[in-house]
Structure formats: C-alpha cells, structure tokens
Write a structure and sequence with these properties.
The complex is a heterodimer. By secondary structure, chain A is of the alpha+beta class. Chain A is 24% helix and 38% strand. Chain A is built from eight helices and 19 strands.
C-alpha cells in the first residue's frame, strides 16, 4: 500500500476549474472518502488519480512515484498499478466471473497456477467462491459489485479507487456491502479513496472524510470531528444539515468554550484557536425548549419517529428559521417557545 | 485475504506490467498504419481526381474545356431530367407507401416494410434487367399494356422514360426510410389535440400530419436524386440501347472506347457528377435543417384508423407492392428458366440449361462468381478491421486527428461510384512506388476501390456502436494494465462482435453485385458478377444474363436473411432495412 499525495492539483474543463488547487495527503493504508454534492469535482479528482484525466497544474504522487505533473509527462493508467471499482461495475460482458478476475493477472504474465489460486482467493474473500463460471449478466447487482471488488483485490493494487460503488444498489444491499468494505479494508490494509455523495456512507466507512465543493476541498477530518467542528458554512450545512447563524457581534476564536451573543441572548460555543468570527453552527440536537432563551414561534412540527423536528421562526429575526429536535410531546404549531442553545460551534473565520 | 497473500502484496507493483515501456507506442503504430491506409485509399484518390480535372493536361489544355461539347451538354441535361423525374417518382411512391404503412392500422406491417425495402438490396442493373424481361413482347404484362395503349414498337423501357421510371422505383426505399423515421418521431399529442379540437381525420391528415412530414419527404427525395445522379446500372441497360446517354454512361463509353488517354476529360466529367450529387446532399441537409423540432414526452408514431375500408386499402397496397417489387423478379427468374427469349415458361419448356451454362461451361461467368466472392469477402474483412481500429481511436479514445479522418472515409461513398473508379485508375495506373507493379488490369484495383468505397458502410454502424459502449469497460481494462491494442481486441471487439459481423456482411452484400465501379476497372480474367450481367445482356445473351442475375439475387436474399436473423440480437438500426 502506498501513500497518495496531491499538491495544488488543478483541472479545467473549458475555462471552468473542475478541480481547483487541491492539496490532499492520504497515508498508506488509510481509507479516505471524498464527499460532496454532484458536480463538486470529486469524480474528476478520482479520475485524475486513475490517470484518465491529466492535471493542468500541480502534481500527483503515488508511493514514491510522481505519476502526473501539470503540463509534464505522466504515467498512463495501465502502468499506475491502481485498482478501481466503478458505479456501473464495468464487468466485461464476454468473460465469466473467473476470467474477469483473472484478466489483470494474465496481462501481467503471471503463471497459470498462481493465477488460479489468486482468483480463487479473491472470490472467497468477497463470498462468491462458487460463482467462478457464471457470466456477469446472470448475477444480481450486489453479486456483480462483489465480482468487481474481487477483480480489484486480485490485482493487489497499492491504491484502490471506488467511484460511488453502492449508488446503484438498494438499501439493504448497501448496508451489507458497506460492512464488507469495512472488513476488507481492515483485512487488506490497502489505501482506499472512496467517492460518494452520501454523507452517512462516508462517515460510516472512512478514517477521514474530505468534503469538496466547487472544485475545492473544504475540510479533511475524521467523521466525528467533521460533524462537531465544521470548518466552513458549506461543510456545516452539507454534513448533518447544520444551521449557520450570525452572532450579534464578532468573537475572537480561542480553543475551549467561550461566551457569545445570539439575537440578544448570551450563549456558549465551542471554538478552536483562530481569527475573529461572527458565525456559529447550531445543530437540531444541540437546541432545546427551555424556560429562558431565544423567543421563537413553532411553524411546523414534523414527526420523525424517535423525535419531532420543530421548525421555529425567530421572533427577533423573522428571516431565520431554526430547527430543533424535540423528544416527547411536541408543542402545537403556532405556539411561542423559548429556545436554549445547549451546544454550538463557532465557525472558524 | 489469507496470510499467504498478504505476505506478498507488493510483488506486483514492483514488476510493472509487460509492455509498459511501449504504453502508447502500440496505439500509435496501429492507428498510424490504419490511418495511412485510409489516407492512401480514400483521401489521396479524391485529391488526385481534383488535380487531374482542374490542372492543364500534357497537351496544355484544361480538362474542363472538354466539357464544352454537344454530347456532354446533352448527357448533362439527360442526367438532370432523369434524376429529377425519378426522384419525383421515388418521393411519390416511397412517401405514399410510408404513409399507407406507417400511419395506418394496416396489418402485417413487418412484412410490408421488408417488401418496401427489397429494392434496396437488388442492384440497379438487375432490377433494370428484371423490368426489361417483364415487358418483353409476348409476356402477359406486355400484352395487357398493348391492349390499353395499342401496339408498341421496340422495347417500351429503352430510353429516357424507362430509365426515369425504373430509377424512380429503385430509389423509392430511400424516401420510404426517411419518411418512416419521421412518422415514428411524430408526437401523438399533436394529432390528439387536433382531433379533440374537432378536426376530422382528413383535416388532421392534410392540415397537421402532411406539413410536419414535408421536410422528411424533401430530404428523402434529395437522397433519391443523389442516387439517381450516380446510378450507372439502370441507364447502362435501359439507356444505351435507347440512345439515351447520361453522364455515368458517357464516362463509361469514353473510357472503354479510348482507354486511359481520355482520363483528364473523364475526370472533369466526374467532377461535374460529384458537384451535382453534392448539390443534392446540400438540399437534403437544408430540408432537414428546416424541419420543425418536435418534442414530446408522450408516445409518438400516431395511427389513423382505416375503419371499414381497411381490407380494400390493404389489398391495394399489397398489389402495388407485389407488382413493383416481386413480379419483375419473377419475370427475371422465368427468363432464366426458358431455353430462348420469347418461349413461354411451362413444365414442358422449363430447363436449367442457362444455369448449368453459366456455372459449369462458360468460363467468364465462372470466374466472375469466384472473383466477386473472393474480392467481396476480402473487402468485407479488411473494411471491418479498418473501421474497427478507426472507430476505436475516434470514438473511444477520441483522438482528434483520427476523428478528422472520418470525413475522408465518407467521401468515396458519398461521391458517385463512377467518380471513385476514375480516381482509382488515376492512382493505380502508374506502377506503384517501391514494388514497381501496376494494379491496373488486376483484381487488386477492384479490391482497392471496394475498400475505399465501402469503408463508410461498416464504419458508420461501428462508430455508433463504439459510442454506445460503456466507457468504464475500457477504463477497467486500462487499470488492469492492458495496452490500447490489447483493450481493442480483448475487450472492445468481443463486445462489438455482432456489429462488426453485420457491418462486414453488409459490405459483402453490396460488393458482391457491384457494377458501377467494377464496370470501369474490370479486365479480361478479372470479371465481376455485376459486370457479367451487364455484358451478357449487351451481347444479347439474354438467358445466361437472367441466370447470373437470378443467382445473384438468390445469394443476396439468402445473406440478407441470415443478417436479419442475426440482427435480432443487435441494437436497432444496425441493418438499414431493419430500423
């Protein structure tokens, strides 16, 4: 397994930068998810790593090898030793399962006996040891994706790229394959870059999540930290639909808990060392109805099973609608309530 | 994975895949060879023809000046009149049949559709011959005709009228195809809106449907015009005996009369042909450009119910179709089964004499069947390979300079066949550099011409198939370490095998009975089937000519039937007669 480094990588399509000065360090053996809305550049980034696209600027290093450099020579995809799992599975329709898994080994000139052993092992790992003779069209979607996975790990690549591999599967299959990916990563110890638009998937699988927006990486952090301490308003909103609100006055960031004022009420926010900021990220579960707090009117109460999401219009700033997760019997729509901030995060400047 | 595998995970990445050093090198070699062949066979001959037609010859006169003569002027006018006339017949017949079959609830549409497209498969010289035999004196059809029109001296189809009429029938399928495609795209809601606004069927038909289909009718008519301009087989069989000369037959007569010494002059004539065909293509494009853009989320392909008149209507359509397509072929078959022209066919008179003669006794026809089979098979295999490589680098790899070659590959198919044949003579008359041998007067010049002309036939469907292929199949193979040529032959070709096979079969079908190009390129010992039908007929050997033609039709229909069966597993539109 190899480390992957991108430094100041830019890729433009007809003047628009799909990937814009991206820096990313992935440690050997790490599982990093690239998360973002569609069109944010995450797939382009993956294709740059695979070698299907060439960067206009910047450099990409895999292991100790510079594989691409803006404007310079590059290592073609077929020589990068990278494995990839596609959303469409990309199984070759004229080859059976065994032949699909074997193809890369054959090209590398591996002896027949060893090839057979490798294929058997890879199919056993993904739980399809008895389907070696099956043709791809006879397999279910989940089985096809397992074959694609086996094809990838049989190559024993130093880096595995996954492009929305679960997007075409139904919810149940997604859960079981997610568990499989997790186990495989532990077992193989390969470096994995995983593109997805589904934040729950990214959080469940990855060691670290890189959130992308408009070609730029917004934040790279472990899932827990990403959720609790978003670096930008975009991350706050995209990950867990956090609410970004303007503070009454700017606060100088320092690590720990500090005092701030929101719509005339004193609140306490977690913060990190940094410049002055006047925005906070609030999450529905960090707000509660209390005896004292921000005066707001319940506009809508949406029952969500374990709790009820209350959409409340702030009395002092009617352009703001805050969401509050309430357990127990909800107040009637139209009621005025006091909202206390139990947990909040000072967005870094 | 087991411990054993985990212990040696890095072994592979340290040994780079074989062929890595030449990554891209194999691509460049393969694409380079194919590009050189395509440039040599498609682009260079066309340019050479232009040079020959436009620059002064050895005697210092401009070839274009030779056009200023009475015979050329007359042939040009004849070409225009017969082409315009025949395209009007094609538009009326093809358009009418498309409306009758595509727009109504007539039954057995599939069979009617195939019958309408049958003339597309029959080469012009054979359908001309079939019509000659149908209207020979003594046949029931001729008797019926004379009963109406009074006695006819000579053959009624010899001359301009016959050429125009038969070409009109031959090219009707082109209009039929464009019109059927337009009808299938016609949104139903437009018609339903008109009906619910109170329009009666005939109002809707005249006020909504016909105006919407008019561009397709014009475009199809323009295609028929382009085909008529380049048609050689029909004016050769019907025009030459009737002293009705068009440009293609004029070029043929001059070249076969005076030989390569008149090449400059015929190149200029060829240029005129190409320009006329080009004007037709421009008209076709314009007609399509002006077509209204129809967008509809709902169903398309409206149907007008015939109601109680359906049986009568269907009977009329069947009679028209059978008389125009099948009956002439039956007359041809009948003529091949009688010992001499004019002998009525019966169990007593029927004989296989003509067939045994052309297959076992007469050497030129034996040679022709062998030559045509070999040359067409070689042309089919080679064009399929060339097209496979071209389409791969153009559509999957999207190499820009290969994409530019696509247009070059289309040119020899777009110009009239006569023009291509002249270009081929110009290129291959002189001994080839390095080898010092001239291809002129050998089978190889015919093969070269077929490669050039028919590459487009297999390239178009293959390009379409390449565009439809899932790009991740190729990308996955790339990451597996496969070089470009290895991906093409190991991943892409197996996935496209049906399209490659049907494209090659289409080339074989077209080349097997080809006349226009081979009429100018054949030589003693290197005859083709198309040439034999023409020369036997002009020598007056009517029976053997009919036998060769019947055998050709049999081979074509058998192969087309095979292709149709195979096409059931292929994407729609792979075969021109199965849209």
């Amino acid at each position: 397994m190899d480390a992957v480094t991108l430094s100041a990588v830019t890729k433009r399509f007809a003047d628009k930068a799909a990937v814009d000065r991206v820096d990313l360090d992935v440690a050997a053996g790490e599982f990093v998810a690239l998360l973002g809305p569609s069109g944010c550049g995450k797939t382009t980034l993956l294709r740059l790593l695979a070698g299907f696209e060439l960067p206009d600027q910047g450099a990409i290093t895999i292991g100790s090898r510079i594989v691409a450099q803006g404007g310079g020579a590059s290592v073609p995809p077929e020589a990068r030793g990278i494995g990839m799992v596609f959303q469409s599975y990309a199984l070759w329709p004229h080859m059976n399962v065994h032949e699909n898994v074997e193809y890369a080994l054959k090209i590398r000139g591996m002896a027949r006996g060893e090839r057979g052993k490798r294929v058997e092992r890879a199919l056993a790992v993904v739980g399809l040891p008895d389907r070696a003779k099956a043709m791809p069209e006879t397999l279910s979607g989940g089985q096809r994706q397992r074959v694609a996975l086996a094809r990838c790990i049989a190559m024993e690549p130093s880096v595995i790229l996954m492009d929305e591999p679960l997007a075409n599967l139904d919810v149940h299959l997604r859960d079981s394959l997610q568990a499989e990916f997790h186990r495989l990563h532990r077992q193989l110890g390969a470096t994995i870059l995983y593109v997805t638009h589904d934040q729950a998937e990214a959080m469940a699988l990855a060691d670290r999540v890189a959130v992308m927006h408009e070609g730029r990486i917004q934040q790279v952090a472990a899932p827990r930290r990403l959720y609790a301490e978003p670096a930008t308003p975009m991350v706050a909103d995209f990950v867990g639909r956090g609410l970004v609100v303007p503070l009454d006055e700017a606060v100088a960031g320092r690590s720990g808990v500090l005092e701030a004022k929101l719509w005339g009420h004193p609140i306490r926010l977690r913060a990190a060392e940094g410049g002055t900021s006047s925005f906070a990220c609030l999450r529905p579960e960090g707000l509660a109805i209390a005896a004292q707090g921000i005066l707001a009117k319940v506009e809508r109460a949406v029952f969500e099973g374990a709790a009820t999401m209350l959409h409340c219009r702030v009395a002092q700033a009617p352009e703001h609608l805050i969401r509050l997760l309430h357990r127990g019997e909800p107040p009637a729509e139209g009621t005025e309530v006091n909202v206390a901030v139990e947990d909040g995060w000072l967005l870094p400047a | 994975m087991t411990d054993g595998a985990a212990a040696s995970p890095n072994k592979l990445q340290l040994t780079p895949p074989r062929g890595r050093a030449s990554a891209g090198g194999g691509d460049r070699l393969l694409a380079g060879i194919v590009a050189a062949i395509v440039i040599g066979l498609c682009l260079v001959p066309m340019l050479r023809l232009l040079v020959e037609a436009l620059l002064p010859g050895k005697d210092g006169t401009l070839p274009l000046e030779s056009l200023w003569s009475h015979s050329v002027f007359k042939a040009g006018v004849n070409t225009l009149i017969s082409s315009i006339g025949s395209s009007i017949i094609s538009a009326a017949l093809g358009g009418g049949l498309a409306l009758a079959i595509g727009l109504t609830d007539i039954r057995r549409k599939g069979a009617l559709n195939l019958l309408c497209l049958l003339p597309l498969l029959i080469p012009p010289q054979i359908s001309a011959l079939a019509w000659i035999r149908l209207l020979d004196s003594g046949t029931p059809v001729r008797d019926a005709l004379e009963a109406i029109l009074g006695p006819i001296s000579g053959h009624p189809l010899y001359g301009g009228g016959g050429v125009t009429f038969v070409m009109g029938l031959e090219h009707a399928p082109l209009v039929f195809l464009t019109m059927m495609a337009a009808i299938r795209r016609l949104p139903c809601d437009l018609i339903e809106a008109a009906r619910s606004a109170g329009g009666r069927k005939r109002h809707v038909f005249a006020g909504i449907i016909l105006p919407l289909l008019q561009p397709a009718l014009f475009a199809g008519g323009a295609l028929a015009f382009v085909s008529a301009i380049g048609n050689f087989g029909t004016p050769a069989l019907l025009g030459i005996p009737g002293r009705f000369t068009v440009l293609t037959t004029l070029i043929y007569q001059r070249l076969s009369g005076f030989g390569p010494s008149v090449l400059g002059e015929t190149a200029a004539l060829g240029l005129v042909l190409a320009v006329l065909a080009g004007l037709g293509l421009i008209f076709q494009r314009e007609a399509f450009r002006r077509a209204p853009i129809l967008r509809s989320a709902g169903p398309s392909g409206p149907i007008l119910e015939l109601g109680r008149s359906r049986p009568v209507f269907a009977l009329a359509v069947w009679i028209v179709l059978l008389v125009l397509t099948v009956v002439p072929l039956l007359a041809l078959l009948a003529a091949s089964l009688v010992p001499a022209l004019g002998v009525p066919l019966s169990f007593a008179t029927a004989t296989f004499e003509n067939f045994t003669y052309v297959l076992t006794e007469y050497q030129p026809t034996q040679r022709a069947f062998l030559n045509s089979t070999l040359i067409s098979a070689a042309a089919a295999a080679i064009t399929a390979m060339l097209a496979l490589v071209l389409a791969y680098y153009a559509e999957v790899r999207r190499w820009r300079w290969i994409r530019a070659l696509d247009a070059a590959a289309d040119a020899p198919y777009a110009v009239p066949g006569t023009v291509l044949a002249i270009a081929m003579i110009l290129i291959f008359l002189k001994p080839l550099p390095l080898i010092g041998v001239s291809l002129y007067g050998t089978s190889l010049i015919i093969l070269a011409a077929y490669l050039s002309r028919f590459l487009a036939i297999v390239l178009r469907p293959l390009s379409a198939a390449m565009r439809q292929i899932d790009p991740t199949l190729e990308e996955a193979a790339r990451l597996a370490g496969a070089t470009g040529p290895r991906r093409l032959f190991g991943i892409i070709l197996p996935a496209l095998r049906p399209a490659v096979a049907s494209g090659a079969l289409l080339v074989f079908l077209t080349a097997f009975s080809e006349l226009t190009v081979s009429a100018l390129l054949w030589s003693q010992g290197h005859e083709t089937v198309g040439v034999m039908v023409f020369s036997l007929q002009s020598e007056g050997a009517a029976g053997p000519a009919a036998a060769v033609a019947s055998l050709t039709v049999f081979v074509i229909l058998a192969l087309a039937g095979l292709a149709t069966l195979a096409a059931r597993r292929m994407p729609k539109g792979t075969l021109p007669w199965m849209p």
